[in-house]
Amino acid sequence: MSVVLEAESVTFSYGTDEESRPALRDVSLQVEEERVHALLGPNGSGKSTFLQVLLGELEPLSGRTEYRGRPVASWPRRAIAREVAFVPQSEPLAFPMTVRALVEMGRYPHVGALGRSGPEDERAIVSAMELAGVSELADRPVTRLSGGERQRARIARALAQEPTTLVLDEPTAALDLHFEMETFELMRTLADGSGITVVVATHNLNLAARFASHLVLLEQGHVRTAGPPDVVMRHDALEEVYRWPLAVVPHPGPGPDTGAPQVIPLSGGRRGA
């Protein structure tokens, strides 16, 4: 499979002096097309920062980032928005709008600010709302949604872009179990059935191990380990990174994710704090 997104030896710091600790240190990643890639790690490990560097929102101090073999910084913003959709953890609303109006914003890279939408745009909007499970919320003001409903609306907006690459930052943080599962199953379906490459930053180790084909475990801004779930989800590395005793057991099934490694935090008090 070809590489869609690539980072090589990326270092980034929010500070301006030489003594500032880098948020990312010599991070490399190759994102292959039509797969789900998950970034893991505790708070402060660099997951969100790495996504922003990959998308060209932050400029690294050193290293390079490319999308489809071309430096990310050289892509015109509207051109890359036709290819890549991003779902942030949260965002302020500039003005009140309905869920449908929010999802319609996903068509901007295709029709422009003053362009007229057509049947293809309507089809994309309706399909995106159905996939994200917000069709019944179409006429509701976004300000009256729960946190989980608002996140699903943002996912619908991203899907309305009809991207070839979907990047999500903690997409299930405010969702209940039902929609957590639906969201991860949707990511897997998009990769398998629609040929969309998915990159997701998540705290949910177990769902990442069940639905992603490639995991990257970050620790204090550098890659601790990367690879398929059975390589990354090892209790010794996870215990050191998360500073808590745990066990790793196979998922009991049924289903295609039977045997996927699953983390069980153990009693025993705080370690390494």
Task: Provide structural commentary.
The chain is an alpha/beta fold. The chain has a single domain, classed as P-loop containing nucleotide triphosphate hydrolases (Rossmann fold), CATH 3.40.50. Helix content is 33%, strand content 25%. The chain has helices at residues 47-54, 77-83, 99-104, 108-111, 119-132, 147-160, 177-193, 205-211, 229-232, 235-242, and strands spanning 3-12, 24-32, 36-40, 62-67, 70-71, 84-87, 165-169, 197-201, 214-219, 222-227, 246-250, 261-265. The chain has a six-stranded mixed sheet, with helices on both faces. Strands 2-1-4-5 form a four-stranded antiparallel sheet, covered by helices on one side. The protein has a two-stranded antiparallel ribbon with strand order 11-12. Helix 7 links the parallel strand 7 (165-169) and strand 8 (197-201). Helix 5 (119-132) packs antiparallel against helix 6 (147-160). The longest helix has 17 residues, at 177-193. The relative contact order is 0.16.
- Rg over CA atoms, rounded to whole Å, is 19 Å
Q: How can the largest sheet be summarized?
A: 6 strands, mixed
Q: How many alpha or pi helices?
A: 10
Strand line-up across the major sheet: 6-7-8-3-9-10
CATH structural class: Alpha Beta
CATH homologous superfamily assignment: P-loop containing nucleotide triphosphate hydrolases
**Which structural category do the helix and sheet elements fall into?**
alpha/beta
Taking pLDDT < 50 over at least 5 consecutive residues as the criterion, the unreliable ranges are none
Strand content: 15-25%
Query: N- to C-terminal separation?
Result: 42 Å
How are helices and strands ordered from N to C?
EEEHEEHEHHHHEHEHEEHHEE
- What is the average per-residue confidence, as pLDDT, rounded to a whole number? 92
**SS elements, strand count:** 12
CATH topology: Rossmann fold
Outline type: globular
